[in-house]
């Protein structure tokens, strides 16, 4: 488990997902949106923590990452090289 502290926005999003999970079906639009929001917030904060420690990305690296975030599909480590 990560030692990073949970931010207030992520904590609120987790709480919303937990609350909705008690009374909603997995395909309920509000529940789906809440899970999507939690995922996005968690990913955004993780990316920020990584980028603060890393050297700047090249344009090509940034484009590859942006492509994946837009739904361009995952690739294995071997295909990236």
How does this model look, in words?
The protein has 81 residues and is mainly alpha-helical. The protein has one domain. It has four helices and no strands. Helix 1 runs antiparallel to helix 2. The longest helix has 25 residues. The relative contact order is 0.09.
Features:
single chain; 81 residues; mainly alpha; 4 helices; flat
Order of helices and strands: HHHH
Biggest sheet statistics? none
Strand content: under 5%
Low-confidence stretches: none
Précis, in short:
By secondary structure, this protein is an all-alpha fold. The chain contains four helices and no strands. It has one domain (8-80).
Helix and strand arrangement:
Layout: H1 8-23, H2 29-53, H3 59-69, H4 77-80
